[in-house]
Amino acid sequence: xxxxxxxxxxxxxxxxxxxxxxxxxxxxxxxxxxxxxxxxxxxxxxxxxxxxxxxxxxxxxxxxxxxxxxxxxxxxxxxxxxxxxxxxxxxxxxxxxxxxxxxxxxxxxxxxxxxxxxxxxxxxxxxxxxxxxxxxxxxxxxxxxxxxxxxxxxxxxxxxxxxxxxxxxxxxxxxxxxxxxxxxxxxxxxxxxxxxxxxxxxxxxxxxxxxxxxxxxxxxxxxxxxxxxxxxxxxxxxxxxxxxxxxxxxxxxxxxxxxxxxxxxxxxxxxxxxxxxxxxxxxxxxxxxxxxxxxxxxxxxxxxxxxxxxxxxxxxxxxxxxxxxxxxxxxxxxxxxxxxxxxxxxxxxxxxxxxxxxxxxxxxxxxxxxxxxxxxxxxxxxxxxxxxxxxxxxxxxxxxxxxxxxxxxxxxxxxx
Length: 416
Ligand code: SAJ
Description:
alpha/beta; Rossmann fold; 2 domains; five-stranded parallel β-sheet; binds ligand SAJ
């Protein structure tokens, strides 16, 4: 039985809602679940509860067609997709993944589970989490059989198919990105493959659940380690008085060298987080991955020291901080090193702080109380005697050089 007439999606956030809507758009019935009644009401009114290109029209269409409905309780279905958060709690060496939302989702599915069902974990998860989901289901439903008990003969299939989409391009990437499909058995993987084939045009590769879990974490750890290499080079170059951007440009002329860009640190909710899941699972072995995290996490402190050094030479420092987002041309401030740097500058009371972030209308709570002023680009450049470029937003690239000429400039992105 490889057809799916009804799919249940648990967690209607950045990943769950677009996924639910894309499945509903194939004409099957999708029941979405979220613990937040406000989110449920908004979706049932035909609207997404966050901004994402083209999602408005899609959600309206599938809700009006009666194909997507949201509720706070999990409904029976042929397949269940879990897309809840897996946050990291604690910092540095004490950081540990919190899989309690996944555990709660599994517990909520258990009562409505039936023979022939497929349960998929999409959340980025530490290795072993899919097995944990299967264990919770088995514990709560002794009347059914699961892959850890009956292998290929199990009545319920369990798989891990990690999401890989980039915010801002979610609808396109849900459909076109290649997918890793990790089954707890071959049958589990084959059924999950049949489900994703309904919506995914990209290549789908089948493997084990544990490999799929580590593959997702590895993709982001790979990028983190490579950014850490670039960030370490920026410190080495500072010590040796070499321009790091020239250095990287020269080294990248080699056909097999492709060094990424240094910056003020690494932000976002994935790359700065996922490597810790690997470290937590294999603390003694994951030495390079841990060090890379530490190098990237230390970069805001280095930027701060540079600003301090420059500000000390000024009588009345007026510092223009350009950009707050975690990367260029987005409005997302999550885990942003720019936010950390501005907050630490404000706490250090180094001078007057002007923040320029064209993608937001007000400073975020936590930062606003510390006293920096949200300013527009031209006014900030006019008033500042120290300019700190933190994000290489398009809006900052075309700058009038004359405006910078008598100021200290710290360009953490090599954009100027
Ligand atoms: N950064 C640098 N130097 C670089 C590249 C990035 O300092 O050369 C910084 C950025 O400024 C930013 C951070 O790294 O602060 C992360 O940005 P990103 O564009 O590298 O990645 P994310 O977090 O927006 O999205 C990543 C993607 N993963 C990979 O590229 C391997 C995306 O495909 C994943 O879906 C997403 O994580 C996720 O959800 O896991």
